[in-house]
Amino acid sequence: MNTTHTTDSAHTTHTTEKQRLRAPDVWPTFQAHDAPALIDFLVDTVGFERTVVYRDGDRVAHAQLDWPEGGGIMLGSHDPSGEKGCLQPGSSGAYIVTAHIDALHARLTAAGATIVRAIEDQPYGSREFAIADPEGNTWSFGTYPGEPRGQD
User: Fold this and answer.
1) Which of 130, 136, 58 is nearest to 101 (CA)?
2) pLDDT digits (tens, 9 = 90+) for 51-92
3) Is the model's pTM score more than 0.85?
4) What span, in angstroms and rounded, lies between the C-alpha atoms of 58 and 110?
């Protein structure tokens, strides 16, 4: 198997030539007590891109934020009388892949983000850390992109 090596600061990650990019078919979803503030935090502090925000008065009916390196999330304002199965704000989490883990960690630390898991190399080859957003959701960031499809 041919392998390429890329470096982010002092950390090395491995990517096989057979690895295929995945379409963002799984979208983590979040509800927020203050969706506009959560969107601002995720865009201005974390680095998501504001793709679309549909408002219904003061509420965010639907927002899509894309991660610059692929994938994205959807979120909206919490409605306690809304659909069954909607999670309470602050009870969600997501794992976001980045090739720029050390730079992202430094930026979020400098911005005063709440670090809930320190940056650390994992035994399976990933370098990771986690933060909590202002609503209490957990955002884990790491270099591990998942395994290639079609591998046994």
Assistant:
1) 130
2) 999 999 989 999 999 999 999 999 999 988 766 667 789 999
3) no
4) 31
